[in-house]
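Team,

Forwarding the record for the chain on the shared tracking sheet. I've put the sequence and predicted structure together so nobody has to dig through attachments.
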Amino acid sequence: MALLEASNITKVFGGLTAVNDVTLTIDEGSIVSVIGPNGAGKTTFFNILTGIYKPDKGDVRFNGQSIAGLRPDQIAARGMRRTFQNIRLFPNMTVLENVLVGMHTHLRAPFWNILLRNRSLRLEEGKARDKSRELLRFVGLDDKRDNLAKNLPYGDQRRLEIARALAGDPKLILLDEPTAGMNPNETVEATHLIRRLRDERGVTVVLIEHDMRLVMSISERISVLDYGTKIAEGDGQVIRSNPRVIEAYLGKAAGHHG
């Protein structure tokens, strides 16, 4: 069953086609990677899926309904969350508070309850706190819940981003370069965590990633973008041996020296 269907997505910025007629189907319960050289249009494509940009052409269907043109908060409320290439935590809030913020689309108590601090809000806040701690345990950060986010090591900040994304109970999580800047040990741990998102929490995962070892070890399907166009799709075996993919990655460096 397709959870996400992006059909014929095109996005043009001032004459430059950033995404060119890209179609991508994400099955529920899968781990899919979108790869390609720098400037291939990967983050722009994520930005279209999550409502930051509206596609110039094409449609995005999530859970059977069109979401093209919805705002990012509306898409998040429907069950799609993301992390960003550059970490976007609240640095001067605690680890626990950062996860609580991720829950805001799910806290039902209306605004005046927050002003009155009444019992229903306190109950809901207690539940939210319990759930936040459970998510922090899942990513291995519960013992650091009272630390300020800015004081966490880099790999832990990335984990916190994932915990915060999970706070909204997403069906689908988009990870934009989740291991960028990590050392090899942190990358191995991140790989395990991404797999557990799907295996233990039932979340479908789509990632943009440059670490090819990680991509090959974790993805059931890989889509390759180059200059905004999808040039290949398949499992690791298919992608590894695809001449257009090899040219896209190596040709720029190796293919033009005659």
